[in-house]
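Standup, Tuesday
Yesterday: got the pipeline producing structure tokens again.
Today: sanity-check two examples.
Blockers: none.

Example 1:
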Amino acid sequence: MENNRNKYLMKNTLLFTLGNLGSKLITFFLVPLYTSALTTAQYGVVDLVATVSTVAIPIITINICESVMRFALDKDADQEQITQIGTYIFLFACLIGLIVIPICTRFEQISQYAVLTYFYVITSAASQLYLCDLRGKEKLLHYSIGNILHTFFIALFNVIFLLAFKMQIEGYLLAFICANLITSFYALLVGKGYKSFRLKKINKKLLRDMSKYSIVLIPNSFMWWIMNSSDRIMVSSMVGISANGIYAVSYKLPTLVSTLTSIFNQAWGYSAIREDGACDEEEYNNRVFKMLTGIVMLIGIGILTFVKPFLSIYVSDEFVSAWKYTPFLIIGYVYLTLGSFMATSYTVHKDSFGYLFSGMFGAIFNIVLNFALIPFIGVYGAAIATCISYVCVFLFRLIHTRKYINYKIGNIEFLFGSLILILSSVAIYLNNNIGFVIQVILFGVAVCILGKPWLSMVKRIIDIKGK
């Protein structure tokens, strides 16, 4: 049984790695293109458009993509009905979403891009919905290919629009719109979602259940927007749009932490649903949690160690100062990743209120701290507020999910990993060679203490490929 559950988890992890890691790496290496083709102010504008999209999509679609994915994983799921409900709600969202245009005109920085922002939102919603449809149907290979295609076309169209045609902000937005459309058509084709456009009587009970589950997640998505993106709007208004452009770049390396580990968390969600009710469910969950803790701590410490020399060659000179804010963000993302693992208990039990309460808890801290800190210490205030709010979410979920699983943090991986992470964050501000040497030593110690999960994971991957 242990071998089967590990094989299932590793197989899904590899499939998600194929799509997510490949696409995220392409996106990551597009940053030099953006920072060379766009000024700090222009990069701040496109980041603001992405922020508006993050808020608008869950509201106008009532977050239906989450229900499409989760309900399709039930053993007795009527997948065609589930996709049809998702499609009907999306078509309705296309009309409701027109409100994005007058809202955008109220923001001076993006008012002239209001129509493009609308299409950016709608096409992003379509690609999210039908990629989630593939995940719900466990067509994970097709889902991974869809992610790769999405990012490939983003890169291709960015090269065409930004480098060849010099279209700047318009080119950036058009690149995403075109890539979203292609990805949506691909997912509709391979997942046979096009059948959902046929007129057919809808299961009203299923519609109610799906809507109830997803609607509760709307405030949760808004709370995550507050923690992820509202600080950028506040930095733009309180400090300046150029400062937001630099702050947006400072997010790129920390988000690698969540990108790499979210791949595993996505795969773990399928295993967690399978393990629900198993006699050793709690023990197995804690073994996996301990392994993930070692992995995410080591990733965070590694990024902290090399962020300064890397940024000096990764971005243009005017963006290099972004390293100053990354330590706070990296710490926050490490604990957010662990909190996201715990949140799979909410998914297993369809407890969307758990997501809501934990998101609200972190968002309240974030808003209060942003208003308190940004006016006095500028961008540092936004980074510190984000860090504290993510840690608060982790602590909330650690306590709140005990009704499902009692996650244990009194292990070497968590305690020593946290200590080294904090020490490395302090050492980075010793702006000289001594600081870097201290960081390298701390990283070496972390490898010795936290490297075991990596070796175990590599061994399992080799065993799976060998068989």
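Example 2:
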Amino acid sequence: MKNLFYLFLASLLVSFSCAEDNTASKDQSILENPKTSISVPMAGNAYSSKHLEENQTITDNGIENWTNASEFFTVYFKISKPGTFQFTVEESVEVFEKSELEFSIDNESRKVQFTASKKAITIGSWKINKEGYVALKIKGISKTGNQFPSINRITISSADYDAKISFVPNNEGNFYHWGRRGPSVHLNYQVPENINAKWYYNELTVPKDEDKIGSYFMANGFGEGYFGIQVNSASERRVLFSVWSPFQTDDPKSIPESHKIKMLKKGENVHTGEFGNEGSGGQSYLKYNWKAGTTYKFLLQGFPQGNNTTIYTAYFYAPELQKWLLIASFNRPETNTYLKRFHSFLENFIPEQGDLSRKVLFDNQWVCDDKDNWTEINTARFTTDNTGAKEYRMDFAGGLDNTSFFLKNGGFFNDLTIPKTNFTRPLANKKPEINFATLP
């Protein structure tokens, strides 16, 4: 009987030793001579679950001033093949008394104890079985002080992975801001060069649930400005039309009078003024509660006046009102051109919203020349901005969605579109029925 008892006891010990321990040890050794080792700054790659809180806990220093246990963070990076990765919180961590955090990837978690020590702490290792974006979640379990640890950077290292890892590496060029906003994406419509394009026409639909706060769905872009719709807050949406000044500056107050955009007329309830930061010029917007799932029409006029100025006028068709609305008409000095560089784009202008995906459809593009001849445009070239070109963010796509062009960005999806690819949609042969003489 004694022998049976000892055999039973030994089997228990073996079973306990084989059980997985999801609690990471501070003493777990850091990989020596790894094939890959990168330092990921939280400031450019982490997102809070409290997207639009006034007091943001992600700053240029990383995660800090974290007090709310219901708030959690997600850090994103992209791998190009499977591998096993070790994660270490770097020495810059600031700890207030004692706390416990949980780190998880694909619901496999490690719990880590933090004390006032500023030593680097190894979280643990995960085997990741497929390429693409990886989401590392950080949750607060408990704390004895007022705050959870402040985390500046996390090191990701691997003994078997020898390929590229995509993420925002630093703040050169203000890329903590641009990287967290996510990549902007564009469709550049191929308009025949021999056309004096006096009018651009486009139809835009934001699919349901794709109208995230901070999105700008731009329909009628041209060489000197842009025209589209925005989601500015939970309660405000706008139709926005802007024209850049020929004087290049980010400060509208520095533009000489001879180079300022002149407002000629505007529609009812339209606000007009100046804008800056990304070039400067004249801006107009109408607060309008447009709806996801509804198609809106955009009409832009632009033609030279013969005195080295060009007039640009934007009209928005509101199906809810069943009429065209005048947004604004601007005169641009030092300019002698018809419309050129017809394009659309999609961007997110709130960095805290960069982990959310958004999508927009464009259809039935036309141009009308100075003799009132309409030409359908059905080929577009997909491009992305510098954030995508540097591969800091690779969640971008565009091209064809059935018979429409589409753009998509944000949310760390994996089905990207190769930039500089051309797409051609089927001809719709639905010429816009517009009486120019009756426009407001």
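Quick observation on example 2: The domain at 22-167 is CATH 2.60.120.260 (Jelly Rolls). The mean pLDDT is 90.
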